[in-house]
Amino acid sequence: MRAALLAATTCAVLLAPVPVGATGASAAPTVRCPRVPVPAASRPPRPSPPPAVPEQRVVGGAALDTAGLVVPAGVAAPPRVTATSWLVADLDSGQVLGGCGPHEYGTPASVQKLLLAATMLPKLDPKQTVTVTEADMNIEPGSSAVGLVAGGRYTIETIWLGLLLNSGNEAANALARLGSGTDSAAGVRAMNEQAHHLGALQTHAVTASGLDGKGQFTSAYDLALIARACFAEPTFRRYALTEQTSIPAQPAQRTKGFEIQNENQLIYRYPGALGGKTGFTDLARHTYVGAAERGGRRLVVTLLGAESAPVRGWQQGAALLDWGFTLPRDAAVGRLVEPGELTATPSAAPSVLAAPGAPRPAAASGPARTSSEWLWSVTAVSGATVVALLGGLLWRRRRRMP
Q1: Number of folded domains that form the chain
Q2: Catalytic member of 144, 167, 184, 219
Q3: Which of 68, 80, 186, 390 is the most buried (most CB within 10 A)?
């Protein structure tokens, strides 16, 4: 049974809204994002991002080209959070309701598994039984694993649930391999192709799981595009709301069966929750994607670079969802581009991207209950839709926590 809505007293002070100025656009002064102060000692050294590509920073509308806050004029201020960037959007209309540095680079951690889902779900039969390989088990020691075993036989659906409920990194490797038909590296290449197709031009995957890799990055805006593609899939919506499932015994490997639970607390504590994904690495900090439905309206929130104190990432996401639901239905500062839109009409892209535009058709309808110090260096060759990204870094991977 789902508990009552996140209590108003939870983080009522720490996540209270603060006054902000008018809606920010690229030509306007940057409005500082309302943030909960975080002691500098609690964050590791932050990355130096790739050089900005102007065309990418206006994907979805010119107002989104800001490192600060962008919200519709005259609306209530959003709550204070610890995230370094975030975005709230309507899953159906594609309207962007507001954000903080929506096109600022960040590292994804396990929310990258949503890109894997958006890429591979349509390619794999959930009822098919497959064998997990030794190569699938090649994950960072101590990192998140669901408990699959090499040589074990599982349905594709069981592996998806292990990925989305328990953030299994071995499950990510297996699904990337199976979806590509060759190996997980080919699966990652397919993920990057899918990101480009979705219009997520600031996203570059290096690992299928979201474990830190050289040159791996995304943005809050890109995560919203990816999440929208996921929630357009009925199977994903069902998986995202699954509270628990069984991982079957593997007699040949002498392992017993066991139960796993969904780590996303939003689905238990936020009425109307549709699901989402949690993520954490030392480099990325806490990342989060969550969605909910209220009054026939479906919203998604994405966060990058958050801290778990004073409240956890899902709670910050819940507070931003609450804010989003208070906004008028026609309030918007931009939009989520449609899959294939940027690649279909490259010559028209610059003018298309610069304009906020009208709300686009729904991506889906119907009942949805749904990676120490380092350096990035990127050489960009860009038109409106093409960017070549080369990265180098010194890095250290640490265990991902939900």
Answers
A1: 1
A2: 167
A3: 80
Q: Is residue 103 part of a domain?
A: yes
Mean pLDDT of the chain: 83
Strand partners for 316: none
Is 13 a member of any domain? no
- Could you say which of 85, 93, 113, 209 is catalytic? 113
Encoded tokens for 62: 């010119």
Res. 63: pLDDT tops 90: yes
Rounded to 5 degrees, φ, ψ at 97 are -85, -25
CB atoms within 10 A of CB 308: 16
CA distance 218 to 199: 12
Is 167 assigned a catalytic role?
yes
Is the per-residue pLDDT at 263 higher than 60? yes
Tens digits of per-residue pLDDT, 132-148? 999 999 999 989 999 99
Question: What's this model's pTM, rounded to 2 decimal places?
Answer: 0.82
> Considering the domain boundaries, does residue 27 fall inside one?
no
CATH number at residue 275: 3.40.710.10
Q: How far apart are CA 311 and CA 17, in angstroms?
A: 15
DSSP, collapsed to helix, strand or coil, labels residue 204 as strand
Cα-flanking dihedrals φ and ψ of residue 15, to 5°?
-110, 20
Backbone angles phi, psi at 99, to 5 degrees: -175, 170
CA atoms of 136 and 138, how far apart (whole Å): 5
Calpha distance 289→219 (Å, rounded):
12
Chain segment 64-104, per-residue pLDDT in tens: 999 999 999 999 999 999 999 999 999 999 999 999 999 99
- Describe the crossing of helices 113-120 and 220-231 by its angle, rounded to 10 degrees: 40
C-alpha 227/C-alpha 302 separation (Å) is 9
Q: How far apart, in whole angstroms, are the C-alpha atoms of residue 116 and residue 6?
A: 30
Under a CB-based contact definition with an 8 Å cutoff, are residues 213 and 184 in contact? Answer: no
Contacts of 52 (CB under 8 A, 6+ apart): none
**Domain residues for 283?**
54-347
* DSSP assignment of 152-174: -EEEHHHHHHHHHHH--HHHHHH
Which of 85, 93, 110, 180 does the annotation list as catalytic? 110
Across 157-164, average pLDDT = 98
